[in-house]
């Protein structure tokens, strides 16, 4: 099947990517920031032979030459899946905390592959709907053709910096391929809000991914007085995002493509109603039953047909995703 380097191996999406890579027969090496995280990944896959799953340490993805040693391998790598990038709202310095790690991390991987891993045929990059959305003027339908028009100056506003980091990192990747003409092609996966079961061996309730926090808050009763605003009205399940990454190295036609990976529209009211239906014991902790939905009547449309037709995705339902997410959160003490 081939050998894959997966960066950011202890992340929410990457943890699911590992499972699918192993299921599909790929020899998998993950990058992690510490021995502890690497060991936890191996311990969570006790029946996987060590030649099929291993890790290398990359402490700082934004450091010069961070991936130079990680991409060297014997036998050599065939593919790289780059999922490592910061996503949180604890911004002290927009450039240092977000923009540098995202942009330099992405271009650093591509430079390292070009210089030290001539065997690599494709690099798949976790981008985001953040690099597609135009918050000032939504198109009637979002597709892969759209780009976030955000500027560097606008990125200095802390509320914009995450979206900017994903936009600039993805643009830097496409520019690299155009200008450097490396021995590989790239594909990007662009999901919106990512829900779905957390991976228990890596996540505490305090350290879960930002998107799932809204479900955690509901089942812990911190939003029972009032339903919070939804914010982003489109979503996808993490397992479908993970599969998209793997399919993007398996399908030859995926090279040179962006993939808008989304299952459809939702609101926080939908989440609360599904939890109410699937876990009636949690009723007392949930926001009021008669809370109105805040989806605008003229909400933008979405076109995910490329991900379906090229990658073969068959998206999970919101009910399935939310129920599985709640189950995984309760299992770690929510």
Automatic annotation (TrEMBL):
<feature type="domain" description="NAD-dependent epimerase/dehydratase">
    <location>
        <begin position="4"/>
        <end position="257"/>
    </location>
</feature>
<dbReference type="InterPro" id="IPR036291">
    <property type="entry name" value="NAD(P)-bd_dom_sf"/>
</dbReference>
<dbReference type="InterPro" id="IPR001509">
    <property type="entry name" value="Epimerase_deHydtase"/>
</dbReference>
<dbReference type="GO" id="GO:0016616">
    <property type="term" value="F:oxidoreductase activity, acting on the CH-OH group of donors, NAD or NADP as acceptor"/>
</dbReference>
<dbReference type="Pfam" id="PF01370">
    <property type="entry name" value="Epimerase"/>
</dbReference>
<protein>
    <submittedName>
        <fullName>NADPH-dependent methylglyoxal reductase GRE2</fullName>
    </submittedName>
</protein>
<keyword id="KW-0560">Oxidoreductase</keyword>
<comment type="similarity">
    <text>Belongs to the NAD(P)-dependent epimerase/dehydratase family. Dihydroflavonol-4-reductase subfamily.</text>
</comment>
<dbReference type="InterPro" id="IPR050425">
    <property type="entry name" value="NAD(P)_dehydrat-like"/>
</dbReference>
